[in-house]
Specification:
The protein is α/β, with parallel strands linked by helices and about 450 residues long. It has three domains: about 80 residues, Type 1 dockerin domain; about 180 residues, 3-Layer(aba) Sandwich (Rossmann fold); about 150 residues, 3-Layer(aba) Sandwich (Rossmann fold), CATH 3.40.50. The protein has a six-stranded mixed beta sheet. α2 packs antiparallel against α4 and α12 packs parallel to α18. It is globular, with a radius of gyration of 24 Å. The protein starts with a helix and ends with a strand. InterPro entries: ABC_Transporter_SBP, ABC_transptr_periplasmic_BD, Dockerin_dom, Dockerin_dom_sf, EF_Hand_1_Ca_BS. This is ABC-type Fe3+-hydroxamate transport system periplasmic component-like protein. Pfam families: Peripla_BP_2 (PF01497).
Length: about 450
Amino acid sequence: MPKNINIIGYILLTVLLLLMPVYAEGDYNHRLGDVNKDGSIDIADVVYLFKHRNLEIEDGDLNADGSIDIADVVYLFVNYQKMREPIHYAKNIKITYYDEYGNEVNPYNGEKYAYKIVEDATGQRFLLKNESQPIPSWAEGKYDKVINIPLKRVVVMSSTHIALMEPIDDDGSVISSVKGIMWGKLYEWYFDDIKKRLENGSIIDVGSTYNPNYELIIKLSPQVIFVYPGYDGDKIIEKCKELNLTYVADAEYLEDSYLARCEWVKVFAAFYNKEDVASKYFTRIEKRALNVKRLTRNCDRPLVAWGKNYPEWGGTYVPRAQSYVAKGIMEYCKGDYIFKDIPGTGSECISYETFAERARNADVWVVPSSTKWLSNFKEEHPGYENFKAVKDGRLFCISEDYWQLGLMNTDEVLMDLATILHPDVFKGRTTHYFLKYNPDNNTAVPYIAK
């Protein structure tokens, strides 16, 4: 009898170990779907996966259901054409690669390119070529401007641009090309190389986004000014046109998923011939982000509130149902978002009363701001102390470095979000980008899942 008990205990222990949320890292040198590791995604990968299921979970579990089985083979068969494309998630990126004869090729699927045409968020078309290359006759009518790459001198409008350049700066050439940053010395920088360059003068603060110092910018002779459309960006774009300065509009903030926003790294990679570096970086982000789906697939859905009240701006801003935030909550982290009935991307401004009516019953409340901007939290959120999330100690804010390091580490942001939603699944894990907020003294600390 004792022997049978030991056997049963061993079986139970084995089952528990198999269920533990621990995943080996996949192969980030090969894109998701390139299971045979030959550098391309095609029907051969479908055949390979059908014959071989003993892969690391990040490499073979393509549908992110926690196992590698025939369902993944079917998934790859149905989706391999889409998976082989250079851009998977971002809807506002348009990059076309060509060989020297004008045939379209795909460097993200192992093919060699000679030229590329990038269309930015304002519809400008740029023919990108190495300085020694001629302008090909077949490209006539396909572009508006020619830019020699890799870029050597640029000005950027936002810290998020830097966050998308840092991952491809493997040899220092990308960040060394940055000669000016708007708000450069007013940002709190979490990239040491940027901080040092601003201190030693190799990067210049070229003024605010609402009133840049164009004399300084012109003296820097930038090949490109990276801007974002909307807000202050539209005025900068008009001024660049007036001054005949070349600008490229990056619209990562308009994308509708965390991975789509991060995928704009591939646009910056195009301007520096860093496609190989961007591919490995984004593959790591993508494969690890899918772990969040695996770990939360069997969880109940906690009710999630996300929003901050801005009385001076007319109300409480909340993500709409198809926004990247709402999708992160519902599709990746298996939460139930309180305003999933407000359609659209981006944010919606609603009355605080409307927000409070639903938010008071939420299991988790995320205030999308750091403590630096939350000194008036109590006055701006009357009755907050009666919210369920506050009573249960599940009120969170974001870290100071969220918009810089967080964008660069999108997979960790999603894992942190899943951790605060499902602490029972992530016991012992400490968050970085979502912090437990104490409104009594306006402080926030990393959250340790229990």
